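Hey, I'm writing a tutorial for new members on how sequence and structure tokens pair up, and I'd like a real worked example in the thread rather than a made-up one. If someone can provide the structure for the chain below, I'll link this post from the tutorial.
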Amino acid sequence: MNSSLISYPQTWSGTADGVAACGAGDGAVIVWRGGCAAPLRVLRAHLSEVCSVDWPRAHLLSASWDTTVKLWDPEAEVCLSTFAGHSQLVLSCDWSRMETHALATAGSDGLIRGWDLRRLTSPMFTLKGCECAVRRVQFSPHAPSVIAAVSYDFTTRIWDLKRGCDPLETIRHHSEFTVRYGYMETGYGKKEKVWRYLEY
């Protein structure tokens, strides 16, 4: 298969009804409108696969195997900023729904980096603890200081930045890679685990 045909999970625009974006194997970010076969826009600047996009606001985030994260104005088809804080593939990016300027990235180096859009020269925090690549990172939609991540070490970890940079909880209930976390875990092991955290 041509790598350009590989696409990753989409994210819906937070400002444009019926419009979504996904990353592609050739480094493109493809913007679609539901019901249309042809893409609205194709954003190109990454040098390798784009495996994570997030688009809750007018601008869009993309994370790539080229070790960078890019901030886009998709309407103008312009890359506004490029920042790098990982030594290996960047596998996930997330834009806080509660804090306008807060971003998080995660990658094959096992690290989670936090960023402030107003100052992208260096991370505002680094979270460690995962023993393998971090496949997905996500801010809590209920508490701006809480972050969860799933790793190829079969764990889900939760941090509360108000309590420091050590994991608040480590959940070990999958026997295969944990690949997604949306306040529900899903893994390759044919099981889903549902957890309830009242404070999150």
